[in-house]
Amino acid sequence: FQSDTSAILGKKTVVSEFYDEMIFQDPTAMMQQLLTTSRQLTLGAYKHETEFADLEVKTREKLEAAKKKTSFEIAELKERLKASRETINCLKNEIRKLEEDDQSKDM
């Protein structure tokens, strides 16, 4: 969470939020039981903690896969660039030869 700079400088008002709370004065016995007994809402076990070791391994794997993909794409583009440069040089040589032939015919 970062504060907006205009709020820090006093140009923008700060918003204060609050939430209502429900209070049951004299709940019925059934309502009391429903409120006090909590049952699991999900079917499977729910973990509140994050397994950072697993998360780190998965993140490293994703980074390595992205790095390999990027390296492959760069190599592929370098090959295409090399082929394009060779084609350009060949065409330049052909143009030069044709121009020389035209000049020699004109003389």
Provide the descriptors you would attach to this structure in a database record.
mainly alpha; 107 residues
Summarize the SSE layout with pairings.
Elements: H1 5-8, H2 29-36, H3 52-106
What does this structure look like?
It comes from Pachycephala philippinensis (yellow-belllied whistler). Keywords: Coiled coil. This protein has a domain of 35 residues. It contains 3 helices and no strands. The longest helix is centred in the last third of the chain and has 55 residues.
Summarize the model shown.
The protein has 107 residues and is mostly helical.
Number of strands: 0
Could you tell me how far the N terminus lies from the C terminus, measured between alpha carbons in angstroms? Answer: 80 Å
Described by strand count, sense and barrel closure, the largest sheet is: none
Structural class from helices and strands?
mainly alpha
Give the radius of gyration.
36 Å
Number of helices: 3
Provide the succession of SSEs.
HHH
